[in-house]
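Request from the bench team (R.T.):
"We need a structural guess for the complex before ordering more glutathione. Sequence and SMILES attached. Just send the tokens back."

Command: build protein-glutathione structure.
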Amino acid sequence: MKTRLASLLLGALLGTAATGAATAGTLEEVRQRGVLTCGVSKGLMGFSMPDAQNNWTGMDVDFCRAVAAAVLGDPRKVEFVPLTAKERFTALQSGDIDVLSRNTTWTMSRDTSSGLKFAGIMYYDGQGFIVNTARTPKVASVNDMSGLTVCTQTGTTMELNIADFFRSHKMDYKLLAFDKNDEVIAAYEDGRCDAYSTDQSGLYALRLEMKAPDDNRVLPEIISKEPLGPVVRQGDDAWFNIVKWTYFALVNAEELGITSKNVEEMKSTSADPEVQRLLGVPGPDGSSAGFGIGLGLEENWAENAIKAVGNYGEIFERNVGEGSPLKIARGKNALWMDGGLQYTPPVR
Ligand SMILES: N[C@@H](CCC(=O)N[C@@H](CS)C(=O)NCC(=O)O)C(=O)O
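Reply to R.T.: structure attached below.
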């Protein structure tokens, strides 16, 4: 941390810190440190949640592990840095984390004025509302929300979406915004607000942690596009490629039927050139395919990631899917060939 602070100060003197440009390559820093620092939420079921022993689980957590496996060959070499919505971008800009994997929406201003770079869309989401069926029994749709008090978290895309929605629907509303998610939940549960608004996936997660989940209803509509994905700093294309292609590899693996269980077998037996390229199988003359090398990694980068956390579908199902407590359908997050939006470029 000290050396990073020193290099940041030096960067500030040289005028590079303002643009967030890294002084040394992130890949090299991660290698030297031996650990990936990954920014996650402070706790959101299905996405990033610590247990009593500080073991983290969730989709965002699995993505961090996949990057650690691809880069360092070991999914355990991750330090999870819990961040509020407000803290997350500063942590990335200042170099405190190597990657942000925290239910973060890709927007234009984050891509431009905040100096960030989104590596892909891990989860297609939209902003929704949850209401209490005992307190507001008549609210079954967002169109029934006129005059209600809505709670949300600061530093998110939510406040602006709420303002846009109520204004365009010519409905009155009151907003109560808090820095910490616990404060938002407490205000909602205490009845200080009629509705809680955030990403719909977050609402399914939060509902399960409420005192009486069945008394709370997630309204069916969404009012915005919330494409959630991992983020890096601008100015380090090599690192950006690693994070982006780790995500692409997980989706491609699902498409090709490669799972955490069969990855080794497929590597040794599959005759499919797409499988062979993704898994870094050497050519008949022993020459390497070179895709891992192109990233500055080992040829088995993708194999390591898939072995560690499974393909995209396995990650989705385990953490938020129908078999998990959240029971979210694949919907827009299904592969493109199944009618969803998950479509990633090929390894070739
Ligand atoms: N996707 C939105 C919202 C993300 C967000 O911060 N949601 C809250 C409410 S679900 C959250 O994750 N809180 C957990 C925390 O602060 O640790 C954004 O990028 O601005």
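Two things stood out. Residues 1-22 have pLDDT under 50 and may be disordered. Residues 237-255 form the longest helix (19 residues).
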